[in-house]
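Q: Hi! First time asking for a complex rather than a single chain. Here are the components, and I think there are two in total. Is that enough to go on?
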Amino acid sequence: MRYDLQIIASWIEPGSKVIDLGCGEGDLLQHLITHKGVQGTGIELNEEKVARCIEKGLSVLQGDINKEVHDYPEGLFDYVILSQTLQQVFQPDELIRAMLRIGRKGIVSFPNFSHWQIRLQLLFSGYAPVSRQLPYQWFDTPNIRVITLKDFRKFAQDVGLKVLKEAAIDTHSQDRFGSIVKWFPNLRATYGIFMIGGSEAE
Amino acid sequence: MSEYIHHDKDRISVGVVEKQYFSFAAPPDEMVLESGARLGPVVLAYETYGTLASDRRNAVLVLHALSGDSHVAGYYSADDEKPGWWDCMVGPGKGIDTDKFFVICANVIGSCMGSTGPSSINPATGRAFGLEFPVVTIGDMVTAQKALVDHLGIDRLLCVVGGSIGGMQVLEWCVRYPERVVSAIPLATTMRHSALAIAFNEVARQSIMADPNWNHGDYYERAKPALGLAVARMIGHITYLSDESMRHKFGRRLQDKSDFSFNFDADFQVESYLRYQGRKFVDRFDANSFLYITKAADYFDLGKQHGGGSAVKALSKARARFLVISFTSDWLYPTYQAKEIVKALKKNGRDVSFCEIEAEWGHDAFLIPGERLPKLIRGFLERVHHGGAE
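A: Yes, that's all I need. Here is the structure of the assembled complex.
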């Protein structure tokens, strides 16, 4: 399983109720069900991936997370997970609000745009940065948002969300291995992972 | 649907099966229908495949569509020309694996494939019911099936599964007998007919009723309304296909000729195909049953019947885990209608999976052998079999 998913999995309380937005082929869900005994469900747009999930015995529904997130009752889930997708969302603020409506806690991970290699690329080449985490050109990228760890922390503060946990990690997009970045995370981490809650969260 | 039924390409089959009959609701304990009318005795034709486990927790109830019957899979004899209507799905190692599950299917009441319907003998008169047969609903069909499930000694069904009108029965089961259903797979179906679906049914019914041989439903001792029923089937058949599948299957190709005939014979392949399907249908189906079952489908409205107009409220009664499936080219029950089911289940916090399968075959896609659907159903059944109820 991807390194960022391993970190996310380590944050989930056993036996909790989880929804994974953009769950892909259900690796994280499968892991959480097997190892943490969670009650898990997911939403995925791609028919092929949805089919893989259901064939594996996962509870997953096909649809656009921005629309499908709305129909659940308030507080149905303990955790709402959005991994490596926030940078592709058209209205991230709305989605995050919706996540915290249907769940007590939200977990988001995204590529850190202020990594030193990205900074250097822009500074010296003058072209929009292309990295292993963000491997597209400006005209074909699905990653329409550029977010840094500092940006997210500021966003959370501005809209009144509590950051309950955070991890800055150094890993590649599909890699099983990685490490936690303690020093200068905004400069050295390739990904950030945040657990957030509403203002009343403990 | 019979045009899709072929021998399994790998010759895998449940083998020779037998149609059985269950009779209940003998007077004075007749079945009270939703309309208030009483019906009894009621006979259900049914078949079972596989073995009921000692804990009786492996029963899967298959629910058939408009023109289907209890013969889901296998053959009636060694030299039978065709297997049952969902042989591609039900059998050893198939999507619904008869090595693991005890599969049951009963012909719906109102039909003509062995269960009590308008062509059955009315005990009061000694003649076929005809229009004296009471109008039955999807709910009545399900109530009758429940009597059979009770008779078989099955307390909880591991799964109820069906497409189209069969899918309506799946939904009905989940809210009428929630404690009896562990999981449910409504396929290519809806919580209520759109005006479009009702309109096609009405044109088909009018075609039957306009046939002078129909004679207000009283034709069992004379010539049948064959033309009316054939046209009704032709109309139905168009709604089961799609623009894309018809373009591929027929296009504008001519049938056994190189130029137009300049008369009203069947020039195009599609004309000839529909005429053939219509004629074939007349041999196996009763015109009055067509009227009764299409009416039951038109009346079906899960939200109105069980939730005071609210589908969310109706499905709040359900306890099952759901796998909802739609097909991209199904314009009779389009995906938005499946999504309404999914939405209502989500609002109730129910466990629901949903997949819209890319298929060009229109509404009939669920009957056609393919890879995707059996795999989805197998994975889902595996989970509910081992995971049990929520």
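A: The mean pLDDT of chain A is 93. Let me know if you'd like any chain examined more closely.
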